Amino acid sequence: MAKSSSEQGSYAPKNILITGAAGFIASHVTNRLVKNYPSYRIVALDKLDYCSSLKNLNPCRSSPNFKFIKGDIVCIDLVNHILISEEIDTIMHFAAQTHVDNSFGNSFEFTNNNVYGTHVLLEACKDTQNRIKRFIHVSTDEVYGETDMETDIGNPEASQLLPTNPYSATKAGAEMLVMAYHRSYGLPTITTRGNNVYGPNQYPEKLIPKFVLLAMKGEKLPIHGNGSNVRSYLYCEDVAEAFDVILHRGVLGHVYNIGTKKERRVLDVAEDVCRLFGLSTKEAISFVQDRPFNDQRYFLDDQKLKKLGWDERTPWEEGLKKTMKWYTENPNWWGDVSLALHPHPRISMGAHSNDESWSLQNETATTKESAVESSSGGLKFLIYGRTGWIGGLLGKLCEDRGIEFEYGRGRLEDRRSIMEDIKRVRPSHVFNAAGVTGRPNVDWCESHKTETIRANVVGTLTLADICEEKNLLMMNFATGCIFEYDKDHLQGSGIGFKEEDTPNFTGSFYSKTKAMVEGLLKEYKHVCNLRVRMPISSDLGNPRNFITKISSYQKVVNIPNSMTVLDELLPISIEMAKRGCRGIWNFTNPGVISHNEILELYRDYLDPQFKWENFDLEEQAKVIVAPRSNNEMDGWKLKKEFPELLSIKDSIIKYVFEPNKKA
Ligand SMILES: NC(=O)c1ccc[n+]([C@@H]2O[C@H](COP(=O)([O-])OP(=O)(O)OC[C@H]3O[C@@H](n4cnc5c(N)ncnc54)[C@H](O)[C@@H]3O)[C@@H](O)[C@H]2O)c1
Fold it and tell me: What is the CATH number that goes with domain 15-202+233-262+297-309?
């Protein structure tokens, strides 16, 4: 039922700006205020980050007292413009980077959004000269730091702030600015510090929706550490009501805890979810590595807000049931969330925030809507190398798996064109399968050195540099042809070159440029360098396929080498992107296989009449321009990450010869 503010108490806002409105908590607050207070105008601002969705605002989108603006709070011009043009008198500031796991990966994004973004809002309020009558700053229980397990006294609002992780540190930093603007400029602020919230609309990187979605898929629920950490959970609608109360009756300059005394261990939450889905806890739960730091408990004194007239209404069992019902009825709300469901998701942020543009709209246009849909799942690849072998296969793989992707239109060495691609595609990850390898083989590079440098050195480094700047993970298909057997890695010894080894083969110009670039890429933290070698695929009609090549040569050398079976390893590169793998990886199947062993398989599986001739390296040197590298790569690192990875011989049989035989 519509309410008037006088029924609620003394403060009567006119035009409220709600930041982060398409996110979880703020969407519930926005929907509630739009519905219950038709006389208030609600302006919702959100940059539509990976964790937000305009669908969260469906209940109020057609209301005349609602307006949505897509934009970033760090943009001072936008914020000033909104405050003036919308005649804002009240701000409810929810926008933030909120996922603790991500803050261990990229805390600068947290400082930028949570501290700098709040600072921008405060400064803009100051400049309106007293037109802002109420600024509600939304903070978190985590700013108090960990509570002693033994105590039964919750943190009162006057407690010291002792944050322990980068997320809570930025939230505490923002609070300090709010406090300072209240004292220095008399800004009418109120701060809230809330316990964990759960319910519909929450992006599934957070514990409860993640457990519910995993249980729905019949997958294991990962528990960080031993699951003994305790958290207090409030149902989203109760929290929306708390904000309603604070908006109308909160006292300026005060801080309010939004809390509950009911606590439960993470393990208890998992057990309750299992029970609701009829799963056996023993089978459905798995214990995974803990976070770098995981507070044991956040316990709040909840009396102050109770005195203002608010109380928790929804019992845990009821809230959890409602949440489960909502996720089962809306399984695709967030699109492909496989990234978020990982035990330690590190979602690439900043990809969707662009400093150069913002847009205003009364309602969402369809184009905007589709942009949101694509970003909400968190997975969208920008692939370079469309006309290349690996780039082409990657695109097909994405198509088959329903992963959104687009090919880059720009040239790698042209910084501007790459920036345009990123702006257009808004990717979650960039794959670089572009570069020159030489046609028909690497000898081409010996006579085309500047072209080789332009693509393989300038291009790759430019792309890496942009990805670093934009916080995007770049999966770079590099080469393992930068090593050759030496006295420490003798042929047949089983001792392979490791990821940390320095390249020792620069015999060809191609390998020389690749080795140089690999050395420089180590300085970029957002690059995952995949050392591919002698790629093989099930498509024997492709002249680039190593098996196709050697089966057509008049004579072949017979040396054992590490090789890459693309049919098995390209899907792994996608999984690595999802897992946020970085650094150098030997991207070959474990072990080595000799040319003759491959040709024997070729004869046995495909052509009993097949014959070939060998020659030695000296003879080979007479028919090629640049020397070739032969080596064994140590496959341990990749095998440890993907224990199911097949040895090179088994992989060739499974992915190449068996299917071709059947055909
Ligand atoms: N979820 C909880 O359990 C919980 C508990 C206590 C406090 N909080 C606080 O409540 C607030 C909302 O949390 P939530 O769980 O709803 O978060 P959420 O991650 O679901 O939503 C955050 C929203 O902010 C938007 N956003 C982020 N940076 C922005 C920017 N620079 N400009 C414009 N929009 C931006 C995002 O697009 C998203 O829609 C946060 O300030 C958080 O610190 C959350």
Answer: 3.40.50.720
